[in-house]
Amino acid sequence: MRLSQFFMPTLREDPSEAQIVSHKMMMRAGMVRQASAGIYSWLPLGLRVLRRVETIVREEQDAAGCLELLMPTIQSADLWRESGRYDDYGKEMLRIRDRHDREMLFGPTNEELITDIFRAYVRSYRDLPKLLYHIQWKFRDEIRPRFGVMRGREFLMKDSYSFDLDFEGAKRAYNKMFVAYLRTFARMGLKAIPMRADPGVIGGDMSHEFIILASTGESQVYCDRALTERDVLGTAVDYGADLQTEVDRWTTPYAATDEMHDAAKAAALGDRLVEARGIEVGHIFYFGTKYSKPMNATVAGPNGEPVLVEMGSYGIGVSRLLGAIIEASHDEAGIVWPDSVAPFAVGLVNLKPGDGACDRLCDDVYARLRKAGTEVLYDDRSERAGVKFADMDLIGLPWQVIVGPRGAKGGQVEVKRRASGARDELGVDAALARIAR
Amino acid sequence: MRLSQFFMPTLREDPSEAQIVSHKMMMRAGMVRQASAGIYSWLPLGLRVLRRVETIVREEQDAAGCLELLMPTIQSADLWRESGRYDDYGKEMLRIRDRHDREMLFGPTNEELITDIFRAYVRSYRDLPKLLYHIQWKFRDEIRPRFGVMRGREFLMKDSYSFDLDFEGAKRAYNKMFVAYLRTFARMGLKAIPMRADPGVIGGDMSHEFIILASTGESQVYCDRALTERDVLGTAVDYGADLQTEVDRWTTPYAATDEMHDAAKAAALGDRLVEARGIEVGHIFYFGTKYSKPMNATVAGPNGEPVLVEMGSYGIGVSRLLGAIIEASHDEAGIVWPDSVAPFAVGLVNLKPGDGACDRLCDDVYARLRKAGTEVLYDDRSERAGVKFADMDLIGLPWQVIVGPRGAKGGQVEVKRRASGARDELGVDAALARIAR
């Protein structure tokens, strides 16, 4: 993509309304624009990252045997009356009356609707287990939306729901999602620590939040340092196998949010204790028959008797993740995208458009990168070098290839790795080989 | 995907509420489930087709130089007051008050919001032309939603918007979208005829509807038979070139919807006149400064003076297309998906699960198809052969590979092409070669 033909309105100054670094940088990089309080338009650069994050989430859900469907944004109030949540949910639910004065709402979550789909079709224990998910825009009418996409009102969420015949089955589903979440966040370059969360009225230990450690995090968290040093992606997962041992390996060391914090256990860690700020990016939750009971979602069990299905739900804040990734990966100059979610792999900077040697060399690099299937943003604008360097650092593409008139004469380009700042003068072949590595 | 592990709740009977064939078949094939009047959940099979249709739309927009962004579903009423449409739009607009009693709405279209984005960032004629699009859920509160996804309330639409300095530029943008639309629909196996549509208050001839001919169409249409016999995809398009000749080639022969019908011109066609029912799947529209003027969207022209930008909008009903494709491509037994949008390329039918030879042969075919990157739905259920044949015809996958105990002993399978009904007994190698062709 040539930047002269792209739509990436970068800003020189921090927008006054932005309080945290990810919000500032997303606005300055031209990734999002606020449409109303807590509601954002995703400009082309931001949308590219959103789609990459969404794709990683989807791939890991699919790998875990979760089936994708798509529920609508607008729901009928009737289902929420069945579960008893219509009155409980309070003002965060965006309530709507249609032209026939029927009570509707913009879904803040989907337990009711998925339970309704399940009970309409699934009749027998032989059809279980079922793990279903969708990735859809949700709305929660926060009283004070802030921090950009980190706490917006309209946000993209992946929510999965498991249906099982008994607690043992529900636990297997929970463990699958537990492991899938570890892999999902690791693929985005994040260290997400599963921490025991409040299981609410259900009790038990089957509720975990996945927390990113970042100095700008919204809450205080505590964990064993060992949890922050693990390699998650080193071995493949067999989702057909029993994953309990793997889950235990993560849940045995101490890790807790402020609400669940146990000072004595934390103190016992000595210098292995990490105290940090955390950002929640996922939450998995077993809730048994909380919805199947009031909504009468049963299957015929092995002896023909109706059995209420055991359920769990599993959420990832997809749009929120963009903020979390930036909070965890940036420097003074801007964003530092992990390779897996970067909007383009390479930024190609022509320091002197109009100069024959620069243009030819850039055209050559651009064509060869594209031919190799590498996504490249080519800054062909007539701007000062300083503006180009600042914009390229700000938008945080993993690699920069910088072409100036002096080097271009000798066929040399500068290759810069955004994360480390390491720079090298190389010939074009060597530069392309470095990037492809 | 093994059908035993999939979620595809097929129905034996036509649902009573469905009046047209596409609605009946989408319900029976387990593609969608109605959540509320005119609001659907997309079950896994339906979602797969929706994504394929969406991908074709996206690829052709990108090829035409249109940049993708994503605007939110919930908009502020303020922008619609600026354009004057908030009061005009009537009851089809879903109006909402948030917790702070601010007037919001679920976007039925996005002229106001995209104009607001444009005017916030684009300053100079040098930044033009700009073609922007998004693919997002819209809501129109139809008084009587019907025909399934063909006239739903919550629906997925691709809408593009062009911004140009003058009429000539706007015409170039219009022509790009005109040609991109021809290609988009042709890639889905559809014959879409561009027909002059009512240009409304703007006048002129720059408004076309793209109409699929189908006996169950919603409106009467007329056109020159020559338009129905053209090969659209035979030659590549250069979107940098002047496309006026190509557009003229399509707009010169007679083609009109009922509202624009000219009986004398139609009669002059003699036996080349096609009278048919039509389904609108796209609409392109030039509207000049209709929004830029009240919303003051200007750029600095070549002499520094502010110039109101010339705009057009270009819509494709993405979710509606699934209904239109089925209306245009089905038979008594069910859907006949064109290869390009089929949810799976191949349905593999094991007529006797548990039979050693059948299972081994099916496992082999399944593994080899997957290895070749072919998407296959493997019916491994313990159901009667009749049920399996009926389901497979109903869901309309382009190829069926049928494995029964007699053939399996000799390594033979039956390959059936869904569209033609042609069947052949073949060895596995020959069967796979046939499908890959």
Number of strands of chain A: 23
Average of pLDDT of chain A: 95
User: Helix segment count of chain A?
Assistant: 14
CATH superfamily of the largest domain in chain A: Bira Bifunctional Protein, Domain 2
Instruction: Compute the CA-based radius of gyration of chain A.
Output: 24 Å
- Can you tell me the CATH class of the largest domain in chain A? Alpha Beta
Helix/strand class of chain A: alpha+beta
The tally of domains of chain A stands at 2
Which pair of chains has the greatest number of interface residues, and how are they split between the two chains? A-B, 50 and 50 residues
Looking at the structure, the CATH topology of the largest domain in chain A is BirA Bifunctional Protein, domain 2
Globally, the shape of chain A reads globular
Structural features, described:
The structure is a homodimer of 437-residue chains. The first copy, chain A, is 32% helix and 28% strand. By secondary structure, chain A is α+β, with helices and mostly antiparallel strands. The first copy, chain A, has two domains: 3-335, 2-Layer Sandwich (BirA Bifunctional Protein, domain 2); 344-436, Rossmann fold, CATH 3.40.50.800. In chain A, the strands form six sheets. In chain A, strands 3, 7, 8, 9, 10, 11, 12, 13 and 16 form a nine-stranded mixed sheet that branches. In chain A, strand 22 and strand 23 (423-427) form a beta hairpin. The two termini of chain A are 22 Å apart. The mean pLDDT of chain A is 95.
